[in-house]
C-alpha cells in the first residue's frame, strides 16, 4: 500500500515537471505580433463609428437625475400644488357644458353633408350648387361653434376640445365631399365611355381586406359608412379602409393604461411645474423687463417641451392606436421618425401624419395640378394651417393675438434658412431648438396674456 502511494507521488512530480517545462518552452516561442495599424480614433468622424448607445444611456441617467433634483427642488419650494379632483371640478364647471352641447350639435353638419351627397348622386342638385352648399356647410361648422362658445364664455380647455373637434370634422367633410365627387365624376365618365379603370384604389384594398365586403359608390352614402369615417383616426376619406383582422384586447388595455398614466402625469406637470413659473412671470411681463422675460420664457420652454413630448406620445401613439384598434382601422401610420428630421420640411412631413396626408391630398396636390408652383402651394398650405392654429387658440382664450399664426408662418423662412445653411446633425439640432423655443413660446405668450387679461392679480 505504502509502495503504491510513493509510486503515485513520483508520477505526479514527473507530471508537474513536464507541465512546467512546457510552459517554459511556450514562453520561449512567444512572438510579439504587431499591434499598430493605420486607424482613426473612435470619436473622430473619419472612423465611421456610430454606436453611441452607451452615451445615450448616460444622457438618460443624467436626465433622470437632474429631473429628480428639479422635482425635489420644486416640491421644497412650492409644496405639493396638485389637485387630484381637477377632472371632477372640470365636469362640475357649468362653463364646460356649452362645449359638450356644441359637440353634440355637430351632428347637424354631418346630416347635411350626407343629405347633400345623396342629392348630388341622384342628380337633384347640380355640381356647382353642391360645391357652394358644401362650402356653406363647412364654413358654418367652423363659424357657428366659435361664435357660440365665445358668447357663452366657455371654459378655455373645453372650448379648445370642442373647436378641435369641429376643425377635424370640417377637414373630414372636405375630404368626404372631394372623394365622393371624384367617384361620382369617375362613374359618369365610365358610364359615358364604358371604360373601367383597372387600377382603381379599391383593388389595392381588396388584397388587404379579404374577408370584408367591399362597398362601391354610391352604396357608401350611408350613416354607418360616414360615422365610421368620422370616428376613424384619419382625416382622409376612403370608401373602403384597410381593416385589421381582429381586435386585440391586451393591446387596448396597454394603450388605455398609457393614456390614464400619461394624462395624469400631464395634469401633474401643468399644476406643479408650469403654473408656478407663470405666476412668477407676472411682474417681468408687466414691467416689460426684456432680460427677465427671456429668462422666464426659457424657463417655461423646458416644462412646455416635456409636456408637448408626453402629449405627442399620449395622443399620436396611445390614443389614436386605441381608437384604431377598436374600429379595426388598419393604417397605424400616425407619425414617422420626425425626431431625426434634418430639415424643417421633413419635420412637417413626419410629425402629424393625419394632417400632413390631408394637406397633401386635399390642398397641396390639387393646387399643383392647377399649375401652381410648389412654393406657392406650400405657402397656401402653411397659411391655412396658421389660420387654424390661431383659431384653436384665440377663440378658447377669447382674445386675438397673432402668436400661433406667426408661429406657423415663420416655418417657411425658417425651413429655407435651415435647408440652405444647416445640414445633417446641425439641421436636426435647429429643428429641436425651434420646437423647444419657438412654438411653445407662442403658446406660453397666449397663456400669459390670458392670465394678465383675466385674472389681473395684484403683485
Ligand atoms: C406643404 C406640405 C404638404 C408639403 O409637403 P411635401 O411632402 O414637402 O411636398 P413635396 O413637394 O415633397 O411633394 C409631396 C408629394 O407631392 C407629389 N408632387 C410633387 N410635385 C407634384 C406635381 N407637380 N403634381 C402632382 N404631385 C406632385 C410628390 O410626388 C409627393 O408625392 P408622395 O407624397 O406621394 O411621394 C407639407 O409641408 C405640410 O403638410 N405642411 C403643413 C403641415 C402642417 O401644417 N401640419 C400641422 C401639424 S399640427
From TrEMBL:
It comes from Brachionus calyciflorus. It catalyses: hexadecane-1,2-diol + hexadecanoyl-CoA = 2-hydroxyhexadecyl hexadecanoate + CoA; 2-(9Z-octadecenoyl)-glycerol + hexadecanoyl-CoA = 1-hexadecanoyl-2-(9Z-octadecenoyl)-sn-glycerol + CoA; 1,2-di-(9Z-octadecenoyl)-sn-glycerol + (9Z)-octadecenoyl-CoA = 1,2,3-tri-(9Z-octadecenoyl)-glycerol + CoA; an acyl-CoA + a 1,2-diacyl-sn-glycerol = a triacyl-sn-glycerol + CoA. It is found in: Endoplasmic reticulum membrane. GO terms for biological process: triglyceride biosynthetic process. PANTHER family: DIACYLGLYCEROL O-ACYLTRANSFERASE 1, STEROL O-ACYLTRANSFERASE. Signal peptide: none annotated. Pathway: Lipid metabolism; glycerolipid metabolism. Keywords: Acyltransferase, Endoplasmic reticulum, Membrane, Transferase, Transmembrane, Transmembrane helix. GO terms for molecular function: diacylglycerol O-acyltransferase activity; retinol O-fatty-acyltransferase activity. Belongs to the membrane-bound acyltransferase family. Sterol o-acyltransferase subfamily. Homodimer or homotetramer; both forms have similar enzymatic activities. It comes from the Eukaryota. GO terms for cellular component: endoplasmic reticulum membrane. The active site is at residue 389. The chain crosses the membrane at residues 55-76, 96-114, 134-151, 157-179, 259-278, 306-327, 377-394, 400-418, 430-448. This is O-acyltransferase. It is a multi-pass membrane protein. Pfam families: MBOAT.
Amino acid at each position: 500500500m505504502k509502495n503504491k502511494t510513493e509510486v503515485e507521488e513520483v508520477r505526479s512530480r514527473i507530471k508537474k515537471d513536464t507541465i512546467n517545462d512546457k510552459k517554459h518552452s511556450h514562453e520561449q516561442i512567444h512572438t510579439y505580433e504587431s499591434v499598430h495599424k493605420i486607424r482613426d480614433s473612435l470619436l473622430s468622424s473619419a472612423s465611421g463609428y456610430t454606436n453611441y448607445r452607451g452615451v445615450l444611456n448616460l444622457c438618460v441617467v443624467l436626465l433622470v437625475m437632474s429631473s429628480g433634483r428639479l422635482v425635489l427642488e420644486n416640491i421644497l419650494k412650492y409644496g405639493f400644488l396638485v389637485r387630484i379632483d381637477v377632472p371632477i371640478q372640470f365636469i362640475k364647471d357649468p362653463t364646460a357644458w356649452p362645449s359638450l352641447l356644441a359637440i353634440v350639435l355637430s351632428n347637424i353638419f354631418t346630416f347635411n353633408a350626407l343629405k347633400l351627397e345623396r342629392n348630388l348622386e341622384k342628380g337633384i342638385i347640380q355640381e356647382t350648387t353642391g360645391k357652394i352648399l358644401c362650402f356653406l356647410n363647412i364654413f358654418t361648422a367652423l363659424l357657428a361653434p366659435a361664435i357660440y362658445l365665445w358668447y357663452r364664455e366657455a371654459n378655455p380647455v373645453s372650448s379648445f376640445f370642442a373647436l378641435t373637434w369641429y376643425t377635424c370634422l370640417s377637414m373630414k367633410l372636405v375630404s368626404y365631399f372631394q372623394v365622393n365627387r371624384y367617384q361620382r365624376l369617375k362613374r359618369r365618365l365610365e358610364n359615358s365611355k364604358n371604360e373601367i379603370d383597372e387600377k382603381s384604389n379599391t383593388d389595392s384594398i381588396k388584397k388587404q381586406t379579404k374577408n370584408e365586403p367591399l362597398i362601391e359608390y354610391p352604396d357608401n352614402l350611408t350613416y354607418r359608412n360616414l360615422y365610421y369615417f368620422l370616428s376613424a383616426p384619419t382625416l382622409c376619406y376612403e370608401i373602403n379602409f384597410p381593416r385589421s383582422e381582429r381586435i386585440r384586447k391586451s393591446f387596448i388595455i396597454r394603450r388605455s393604461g398609457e393614456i390614464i398614466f400619461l394624462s395624469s402625469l400631464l395634469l401633474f406637470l401643468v399644476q406643479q411645474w408650469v403654473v408656478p413659473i407663470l405666476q412668477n412671470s407676472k411682474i417681468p411681463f408687466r414691467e416689460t423687463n426684456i432680460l427677465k422675460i427671456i429668462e422666464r420664457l426659457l424657463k417655461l420652454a423646458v416644462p412646455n417641451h416635456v409636456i408637448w413630448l408626453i402629449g405627442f406620445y399620449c395622443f399620436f401613439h396611445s390614443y389614436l392606436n386605441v381608437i384604431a384598434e377598436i374600429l379595426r382601422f388598419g393604417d397605424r401610420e400616425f407619425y414617422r421618425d420626425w425626431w431625426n428630421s434634418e430639415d424643417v420640411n421633413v419635420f412637417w412631413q413626419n410629425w402629424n401624419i393625419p394632417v400632413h396626408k390631408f394637406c397633401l391630398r386635399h390642398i397641396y396636390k390639387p393646387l399643383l395640378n392647377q399649375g401652381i408652383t410648389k412654393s406657392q402651394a406650400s405657402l397656401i398650405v402653411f397659411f391655412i394651417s396658421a389660420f387654424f392654429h390661431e383659431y384653436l387658440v384665440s377663440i378658447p382664450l377669447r382674445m386675438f393675438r397673432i402668436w400661433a399664426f406667426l408661429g406657423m408662418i415663420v416655418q417657411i423662412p425658417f425651413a429655407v434658412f435651415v435647408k440652405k445653411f444647416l445640414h445633417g446633425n446641425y439641421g436636426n439640432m435647429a429643428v429641436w431648438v425651434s420646437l423647444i423655443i419657438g412654438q411653445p413660446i407662442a403658446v406660453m405668450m397666449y397663456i400669459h396674456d390670458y392670465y394678465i387679461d383675466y385674472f389681473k392679480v395684484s403683485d
